[in-house]
Amino acid sequence: MSDSLSKIEIEKLLPHREPMLLIDELKNIKKLFSATAIVNVKKDSFFVQGHFPGQPVMPGVLIVEAFGQSAAALTAHGLDKSTYENKLVFLMSIEKARFRNPVIPDCRLELNIEAIRSHGKVWKYKGEAFVGEKKMADAQWSATIVDRK
User: Is pTM, for the whole model, over 0.90?
Assistant: First the structure.
């Protein structure tokens, strides 16, 4: 199993597409345990124009969404294809989300995520977001795998 996934490989695991596919790469993958996701926050990212004009900031909810996408890709990458094929991953809860510094385009946001535990189709994760050495956000969340309708 590869230690990293490109955006094209991530698209094979997740249903998300542009502009909502936020993660550009998944690296340092430890199967079903942890990974680092890369989000290239660009000056032309879809949310920049309106959030906020003249002083763009990546919305906190999109940082949380990127955490969720990273966890879904980590989990799908580690599972047998038949387990996630024709499935969707839905966020169930977000806990302890803290936004410590504004994420300003053009930057490389690194999300260090870890699967804390799984019980059946429910998984719990934690993550920290950094730009360089500076912590931007952290959170814990849970998600579940459900059948596509």
Answer: yes
